[in-house]
């Protein structure tokens, strides 16, 4: 069978389509795979360029770049051959035939705007400060940012004296690329941009010219790097411990498990036992389900409480390695002890596996402390529970669990709705407690004990009495959690048991309402956005910003905020939606 194509601009009559893939910038295996797929789909191609070729497929981003590589090959380019992007070939392979060439598939010439052929028209559009720029999850330069963030990750895993600044340099450069309003086609386009150093320019130039960077590919194929990634994926394991495991000759998680008791840190023993569970990303659907469960229990404990999912989910990510939930109460001081009561409730539901509490240790002196450690450190002093919970597998399949809100409301159906969720819930009426455990389809939420009609007074009173008993007995000091004292063997046995739940990492944080919106900014992230906005506050405004508040160093006073928008106004910054804080 002969494949044909017709292009209205260059071809008056249909003729056989013969493809040639310009090998420059293709990784060897990918090139071989594409050629094999073309054979399977009966799409004609040649390994050498000659006059029969009708389509030249390339990874180059400009016509000039493609012609440069064709000149190197000393090949004569057929007069009417179309130079097209790899995306066109991918579409052809998907459809098992040669498709028409659309305008978006053509490799075009780059306009020469000045004597040096450098387009600097976009330079002023990107601020030197990441906190002033919008950075979304999807952008024009993912190929480059993925490479830079791999270099960042490698530097962080090396964990030597100079590696913190090295990793930060790669992250800053990546953040610039995420904010560009155009796709990078030449490193000369980056002239004038802060945070793009010579090392980064060399990496980007290699990717532009050859499709990959030797430095990046060496790391990507490094056995040490893969082992470090493998071991640091264990809950509780950092670079130092991972290196010690490599030094022992351990090659896999199985090797570490066989070694038996290797560390007194419970996080590591539980992290090894539930490695596969904790490595599997938490989905947005699970996050919504768990948020609804927490919201339901919190409304029983403290009806006016505010519950917000933070972290990557609030920034629009569809999955993450854990779920962070920030809680507060509009009456200052009323948030005290709600976390211990919540954990008691979750324990009664048999949802708590293992974790630890940290008390609120904040003092006003910490906010006014003019030290630099806050710029590097992302720790705060809130009351927290950090640990591992059971997520019923129904969290992965049930689209909706019971909401404590009005029956006309629905769970957030997208990441954007979730990011704005806390704004709409704060001022809404709460249904009576008799209704909170019944889902929309009359199934039970994980913490339900009874099924009842709303007019069944006796069962309603029983539920209220059980709730009262539960709250009185929910302090972590007076009640031990079910799995708290398991031996290492018992933890492994639990992980290997036939179960209808998945182990998930959970952080629950409680903030006083006066600090809540600063905590919301801090716990939403991203990590680099926080680092940059805090440095900006200090260097430009002479203010100290933390998750606890904003302190005017000159006046010696804290600046209150009643919304995230007000936090940004205090900082004289344009408000950025959580979706735009993914730098």
Automatic annotation (TrEMBL):
Keyword Magnesium (UniProt): yes
SMART domains associated with the record: POLXc (SM00483)
CDD domains: NT_POLXc (cd00141)
CC terms in the record's Gene Ontology section: nucleus
Main location group: nucleus
BP GO terms, sorted: double-strand break repair via nonhomologous end joining
Domain BRCT as annotated: residue spans: 45-100
A molecular-function term among this protein's GO annotations: metal ion binding
Cellular compartments annotated: Nucleus
Organism from which the protein derives: Biomphalaria glabrata
This protein's encoding gene: LOC106060785
Residues reported in the UniProt entry to bind Mg(2+): 322, 324, 507
Stated family: Belongs to the DNA polymerase type-X family.
Lineage per the UniProt record: Eukaryota, Metazoa, Spiralia, Lophotrochozoa, Mollusca
Keyword presence, Transcription regulation: no
InterPro entries from the UniProt entry: BRCT_dom, BRCT_dom_sf, DNA-dir_DNA_pol_X, DNA_pol-X_BS, DNA_pol_B_palm_palm, DNA_pol_lambd_fingers_domain, DNA_pol_lamdba_lyase_dom_sf, DNA_Pol_thumb_sf
Protein's recorded name: DNA-directed DNA/RNA polymerase mu-like isoform X1
Necessary cofactors: Mg(2+)
Annotated keywords: Magnesium, Metal-binding, Nucleotidyltransferase, Nucleus, Transferase
